[in-house]
Amino acid sequence: xxxxxxxxxxxxxxxxxxxxxxxxxxxxxxxxxxxxxxxxxxxxxxxxxxxxxxxxxxxxxxxxxxxxxxxxxxxxxxxxxxxxxxxxxxxxxxxxxxxxxxxxxxxxxxxxxxxxxxxxxxxxxxxxxxxxxxxxxxxxxxxxxxxxxxxxxxxxxxxxxxxxxxxxxxxxxxxxxxxxxxxxxxxxxxxxxxxxxxxxxxxxxxxxxxxxxxxxxxxxxxx
Length: 223
Fold this sequence. Notes:
Number of helices: 9
Structural class: mainly alpha
Oligomer: single chain
Number of strands: 2
Order of helices and strands: HHHEEHHHHHH
Largest sheet: 2 strands, antiparallel
Radius of gyration: 19 Å
Distance between the termini: 22 Å
Mean pLDDT: 88
Strand order of the largest sheet: 1-2
């Protein structure tokens, strides 16, 4: 198992530390679909008991990042083609509405911050940077709406998808297309056109879905 271990023997938040480390390893693709989470091994790596490990795994299961399998215990959850379709459709609806709410409340400062993430995304060369900057770009725009529940849902959906999105951006023309679409979305926001920005966001998510589903179908047909 590939994750960043921390000595949490004296920590009062061992569960939180183990949870954060495992969650990051999963969404960054450092742990593969179906990989088992062995409690004894994880507890030893973090120098803690099994109790915070068990609690962390339970939280990951609630987020859909881990699933319990008979005879195998907890493993990194894979996503079916049908689930991808559903998750992206939900993203398209939620994120476009978040954008519609946010645009009228955007400030010069928030737009400048979003543009800085856009520029950094376009210049990034490492897959790990792409997914992190992509999330920062979008969520920076949505945050203007002051709708924390929208952001919670959006971040939860992105957690399920990030490890797949990174692979798709790396192996297809997704980076170039995403950069162009980000520029169009940001231009609509800067113009104060909420409906156009929302429509572009919806199409952006659906385009990413089509590209990723095509990539995954081809990949799974070969295995």
